[in-house]
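Quick one:
INPUT:
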């Protein structure tokens, strides 16, 4: 059975702009904003305090006994603040953060608000219905570059841009906190103005619906609007933290809604955004776009007069990829990678970097020494990406996957062209800046670090592989390097050669930095004895024949020291030979 969350992502992605959101107080409550009723109770407590009464046990019951009627939002505001200006000042304390709250991230757009705003910015959501008074959603939309049409009073519903022509319409069903006409009491919520009802009838008839943070218990007018709609053009998806019951259960059955059990709104909307973006990644641009980019690179790279055009071509594509992968963010803290999310995320990164990867592959094959900075800076930019949010560490380091693909693709291409200065540039002069340290990116852009073995087993067809991510990268790069390395056996040899050189670089640096030998063992260490021995002997024979003139040593490997290279290589060979014991 397909996970309801994935089913929802497919629906949103396949029906762009068709799904409307219905957001209740649960969304804002999680961001630290009180619900309308909670504000009424707090105002009631303040009145009781002024009268010297303790009403903590049941403020509403005390108010009824004291005044002979239930507490009313508008009436309470008039009692506590004499003018409209004073009332706005009073309300701001409930909806706008103090300096301390701002530092703690309270009363600010949550991850859910931000994820929704991104879906809106990409055109997946165009209509949002909300029972909330606050402006957190509008703030998140503004930060995402969206200027929505906001309807908070019936008059605005009449004069608003038609839903089909607006990039985003936010309907604040109960009003805005700066307008004291907001709906809060049972009498106010019993019925909507006919103009709002007409708007709701259109939305519920013409759009699919995603409900989050709304219990259905306190809004009879909104329930009635849902029950009036008999059409089922699109599905209804209803989120719940526990098993639905009461009125919400009745509405779910009436709408034939699909229930999605969630942990919280932040986690849910972040996952929806992630899944929709992953599906978007499969809508690849026509292959011609990558071919055109590569054709331009080949034209620019041969003439120095085109160096600015070459720089702009690579840099602009790098920035596009950087924006895509940093915008992907990370799942919520505690979200454990699984067999659904890991393949989706890997595919998303592979698609995002595809054109840039082809540029770097061809650039490292055809380019000269003066072009090296282009490739290293491009990899460095992506290696130092900072994904948004707090997450389980596996998600954070996986954001380095695109940079790793560039390093592997460029490195193998450079080896096939015997450009060993370029190889060493990619492995040692590309830097990562983390925790105040400036280190070679190769230490972190290797399969063991980017996706650890147990997580790599979640990738399709790689269960129990000794080097799952390395195997996936090998298969991914094969067609991209076929122009330079047409024979599969030769490609495998050069792939292993690159990983062996990468292992030498990592071993050399860690031994210098930490006085320990902790080698990286790639695919080469797990192959049959003959294949492994062939690589060892091939590189060993080159070192014996060429000595200090061996190209990689001349390019700076092991500080140019032949003695150190022999020592590091001997240790690496020893560790690799022991892999057969596991």
């Amino acid at each position: 059975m397909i996970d309801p969350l994935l089913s929802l992502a497919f629906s949103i992605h396949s029906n762009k702009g068709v799904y409307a959101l219905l957001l209740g107080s649960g969304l804002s409550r999680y961001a630290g904003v009180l619900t309308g009723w909670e504000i009424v109770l707090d105002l009631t407590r303040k009145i009781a305090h002024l009268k010297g009464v303790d009403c903590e046990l049941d403020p509403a019951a005390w108010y009824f006994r004291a005044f002979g009627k239930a507490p009313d939002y508008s009436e309470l505001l008039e009692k506590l603040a004499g003018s409209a200006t004073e009332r706005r000042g009073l309300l701001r304390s409930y909806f706008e953060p103090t300096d301390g709250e701002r530092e703690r991230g309270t009363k600010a757009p949550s991850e859910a608000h931000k994820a929704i705003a991104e879906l809106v910015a990409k055109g997946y959501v165009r209509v949002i219905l909300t029972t909330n008074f606050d402006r957190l959603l509008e703030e998140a939309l503004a930060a995402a570059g969206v200027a929505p049409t906001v309807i908070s009073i019936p008059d605005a519903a009449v004069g608003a841009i038609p839903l089909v022509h607006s990039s985003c319409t936010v309907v604040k069903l109960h009003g805005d906190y700066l307008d004291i006409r907001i709906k809060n009491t049972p009498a106010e919520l019993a019925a909507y103005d006919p103009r709002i009802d007409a708007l709701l009838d259109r939305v519920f008839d013409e759009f699919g619906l995603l409900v989050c943070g709304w219990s259905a218990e306190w809004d009879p007018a909104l329930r009635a609007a849902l029950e009036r709609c008999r059409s089922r053009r699109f599905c209804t998806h209803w989120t719940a933290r526990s098993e639905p019951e009461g009125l919400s259960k009745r509405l779910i059955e009436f709408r034939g809604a699909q229930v999605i059990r969630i942990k919280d709104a932040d986690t849910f909307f972040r996952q929806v955004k992630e899944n929709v973006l992953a599906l978007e990644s499969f809508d690849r641009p026509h292959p011609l776009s990558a071919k055109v980019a590569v054709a331009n690179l080949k034209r620019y790279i041969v003439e120095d007069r085109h160096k600015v055009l070459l720089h702009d071509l690579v840099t602009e594509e790098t920035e596009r990829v950087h924006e895509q992968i940093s915008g992907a963010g990370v799942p919520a803290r505690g979200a454990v990678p699984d067999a659904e999310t890991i393949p989706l995320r890997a595919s998303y990164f592979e698609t995002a970097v595809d054109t840039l990867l082809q540029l770097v592959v061809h650039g490292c094959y055809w380019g000269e020494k003066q072009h090296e900075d282009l490739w290293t800076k491009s990899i460095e930019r992506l290696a130092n990406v900072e994904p948004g949010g707090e997450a389980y560490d596996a998600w954070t380091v996986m954001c380095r996957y695109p940079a790793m693909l560039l390093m592997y693709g460029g490195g193998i291409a450079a080896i096939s062209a015997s450009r060993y200065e370029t190889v060493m540039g990619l492995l040692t002069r590309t830097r990562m800046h983390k925790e105040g340290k400036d280190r070679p990116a190769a230490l972190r852009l290797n399969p063991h670090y980017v996706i650890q073995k147990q997580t790599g087993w979640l990738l399709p067809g790689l269960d129990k592989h000794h080097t799952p991510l390395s195997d996936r990268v090998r298969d991914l790069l094969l067609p991209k390097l076929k122009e330079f390395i047409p024979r599969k056996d030769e490609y495998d040899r050069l792939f292993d050669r690159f990983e062996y050189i990468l292992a030498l670089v990592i071993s050399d640096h860690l031994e210098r930095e930490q006085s320990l030998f902790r080698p990286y063992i790639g695919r080469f260490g797990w192959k049959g004895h003959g294949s492994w021995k062939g690589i060892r002997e091939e590189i060993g024979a080159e070192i014996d024949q060429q000595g200090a003139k061996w190209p990689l040593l001349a390019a700076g490997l092991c500080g140019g020291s032949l003695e150190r290279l022999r020592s590091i290589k001997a240790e690496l060979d020893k560790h690799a030979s022991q892999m057969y014991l596991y």
